[in-house]
Amino acid sequence: MTLLVQDEEDVLREHLLFHLDRGVDFVIVTDNDSRDGTADILEEFRRSGEIRVIHEPANDYAQRRWVTAMARMAAAEHSADWVINSDADEFWWPSDGDLKSVLARVRSRYTQVAVPRYNFVPVATTGGNPLSRMVVRERSSVNVFGKPLPPKICHRADPDVTVEQGNHIVRGGSTRRYPRPLPIEILHFPMRSFEQYRNRVVRGGQAYERNEEVPRAFGAHWRTLYERFKEGSLPEYWAEEVYDAGAIDRGVEEGRLVVDRRLADALPALVRRLNHQMAEERRSRPPA
After folding, report:
1. Closest C-alpha to 203, from 3, 56, 7, 9
2. 2-192+256-284 CATH fold
3. Tens digits of per-residue pLDDT, 2-29?
């Protein structure tokens, strides 16, 4: 798996634990100038040998270049079979087996798999772990322009691959996409708190403005939201998106929303694994 992160301390530990528990062998992470506790979390996992960390200080969000470099590294230096290019707010959920066993079913002539995403909606309650309180998702998700949320692509490892901006298109070599859906879904948590979301919009929007190698058609979602921030209307946009208990009940009754506790129910086991891992590390350290 490759992972590009920036200020993701609220979900990063759970993201790494979840995917390492669901069949991911190793994670290559690029940390793009995080200013919160992201680097400390990454160091915990780097010490355990489960991830490789690349520090990228550039402020132009050259996602295409950075993710492509990680994907090629996975093939050339880490003997990967399949590469999942993920964001920290995406949880690749295999409903049958683990990710490795599901992808092993894909016949060798196919090199790509498209995986659908479902947005979990922001809720009025605050505090605690956002993944524990966000248990309602959209039945069918759309982007800020009302168009269907595009799937993400995972691909067979290839040292010459190119991953386009957004991780929605992969080029290079054979690009034969598996024609049927696999039992994998992406549980997506983009709007976890207003502070987190505002930070993401501002840093992402500013980075796209500085990026001279990416056409303006790319990143339109974040460019649009950044314009809202500059106009002062981002709080209103957030308020329109947040669901209180009544709105959730109506959405479920109408079939637009689905209560989905899969990840929230899995979190306690992930935390127990982390506590056990940290205890083992403490026992293995030589006495001071």
Report:
1. 7
2. Spore Coat Polysaccharide Biosynthesis Protein SpsA; Chain A (3.90.550)
3. 999 999 999 999 999 999 999 999 999 9
